[in-house]
Design a protein that fits this description.
Pfam families: RabGAP-TBC. This protein is mostly helical. It is 53% helix and 1% strand.
Length: 504
């Protein structure tokens, strides 16, 4: 057994590599130190450099859609198909529909073949692996040989064709994708333009992702911040924005009072540590976040400010501010050119929508954070039922779920995923009943098992923990999030007979 000095030295070495490493303070990114849970940290372990993660090619859901777009009508909505699939259909109707689809698909393929130039000599058919298989090395193949399918999800890629030809795959993909996006955007706009928005239909459309131009208004509706009636929205916005700035005028000057000085100081320290840096380091953004978090803490004394709440401001703010900026990337939104009055409205809207979110998960941030501890225990039990091998592997190497999953619950995976992926994830969370609480549990289970192969290959406590606290998701996109959500949705129904505490 190593000495206390050796244990501290281990975490001192690892601290630079582990974001949000374990701190012995309440409300940090990881839970307080518990000798019963963290006894394994007393073990001495040689310093082994972490295994570098190999660069991998990720097949996106958009790429899949573009390569199979000719099998379906460009205006057909996948949500409708999913809804049909969820019903109990007559087998003859299903088979007849399938025959029509296959016949239409074969006719279109014949037309494309007649237009397509022959492939270049030595060209081969390539496979885009599924995300779950992208880490597996491709087996050697001979000239003209085929690549064996690893899983049924492996997706075929279009044959190589001469660039600029009459049937250039890249041109077709962009065209099909833009048509599909335009069709979805049109459906959202028609729904939002009605005198009373059908919120159930809006949730159904939003589950698969919300087009960027209508995301701000859709988030406000799904959050319950705006009413469904169009005529009532302007008055509601004005009233809520005025109410927020009345709070600011009444409470914000008290940030320097002895009773609130510690809260404000902690907020002031935490904000520069947030991501993305290009956004957070803008002085105007820092001031806005400080006001939002301080006002929320003062008005919710049962929990007050707890580290982790600060991260939940960012997605709302970037979605609402990007409506008024020209940048396509949320990470680099420049607020300096946004008019002051618009910025004030964005601040108020962000405060109210964040408050609505926190109302549903406030037990995550009350004293000792019982909500998070309960959810971590539920995750452990769920994973043990889904994949006993992974669960036993973590148990064998004495890796506790609290050591990595506490932050997943505390920050809603915001520290594990790029901001663009968090925004896409929240599209679904806001359209799913209890999305930020109950459904998030299944997303975390799917997220953990996404790294099953890497977890089982690690045979060392230190390397396992370092991997789980810094997962390689920097290059994730909407396709990866869509696959993650689909797996979480499957788990949700596969374990519908779970004990009642899964449904809390």
């Amino acid at each position: 057994m190593a000495s206390d000095g050796a244990r501290k030295q281990f975490w001192k070495r690892s601290n630079s590599k582990v974001p949000g490493s374990i701190q012995h303070v309440y409300g940090a990114q990881h839970p307080p130190f518990d000798p019963l849970l963290h006894g394994t940290l007393l073990k001495a372990a040689p310093k082994v450099p972490p295994t570098p993660v190999k660069a991998k090619r990720v097949s996106t859901f958009q790429e899949f859609e573009s390569n199979t777009s000719d099998a379906w009508d460009a205006g057909e909505d996948d949500d409708g198909l999913l809804a049909m699939a969820a019903e109990s259909l007559d087998s003859e109707v299903v088979m007849e529909t399938a025959r029509r689809v296959l016949h239409s698909h074969s006719q279109r393929q014949e037309q494309l073949k007649r237009q397509e130039p022959p492939p270049a000599p030595g060209g081969d058919l390539r496979l885009v692996k599924s995300v779950s298989e992208s880490h597996t090395a491709c087996p050697a193949e001979g000239a003209g040989g085929t690549v064996p399918l690893q899983r049924s999800q492996s997706l075929p890629h279009s044959a190589t064709a001469a660039p600029g030809g009459p049937c250039d795959p890249s041109t077709l993909s962009s065209s099909a994708l833009s048509e599909r996006e335009a069709s979805r955007l049109d459906k959202f706009r028609q729904l939002l333009a009605g005198p009373n928005t059908d919120l159930d239909e809006l949730r159904r459309l939003s589950w698969s992702g919300i087009p960027k131009p209508v995301r701000p208004i859709t988030w406000k509706l799904l959050s319950g911040y705006l009413p469904a009636n169009v005529d009532r929205r302007p008055a509601t916005l004005q009233r809520k924005q005025e109410e927020y700035f009345a709070f600011v005028a009444h409470y914000y000057d008290s940030r320097n009072d002895a009773a609130h000085q510690h809260t404000y100081r902690q907020i002031h320290i935490d904000i520069p540590r947030m991501h993305p840096e290009a956004l957070i380091l803008q002085p105007k953004v820092t001031e806005i976040f400080e006001r939002i978090l301080f006002i929320w803490a003062i008005r919710h004394p049962a929990s007050g400010y707890v580290q982790g709440i600060n991260d939940l401001v960012t997605p709302f703010f970037v979605v609402f501010i990007c409506e008024h900026t020209e940048e396509e990337d949320e990470d680099v939104a420049d607020v300096s050119r946004v008019p002051a009055e618009v910025l004030r409205n964005v601040e108020a809207d962000t405060y109210w929508c964040m408050s609505r979110l926190l109302d549903g998960i406030q037990d995550n941030y009350t004293f000792a954070q019982p909500g998070i501890q309960t959810k971590v225990r539920m995750l452990e039990e769920l994973v043990s039922r889904i994949d006993e091998q992974v669960h036993r592997h973590l148990e064998q190497h004495e890796v506790r779920y609290l050591q990595f999953a506490f932050r997943w619950m505390n920050n809603l995976l915001m520290r594990e995923l790029p901001l663009r992926c968090t925004v896409r994830l929240w599209d679904t969370y806001q359209s799913e009943p209890e999305g930020f609480s109950r459904f998030h549990l299944y997303v975390c289970a799917a997220f953990l098992l996404r790294w099953r192969k890497e977890i089982l290959e690690e045979g060392d406590f230190q390397e396992l923990l370092l991997f789980l606290q810094s997962l390689p998701t920097a290059h994730w996109g909407d396709g990866d999030v869509s696959l993650l959500l689909a797996e979480a949705y499957r788990l949700k129904f596969a374990f519908a007979d779970a004990p009642n505490h899964y449904k809390r």
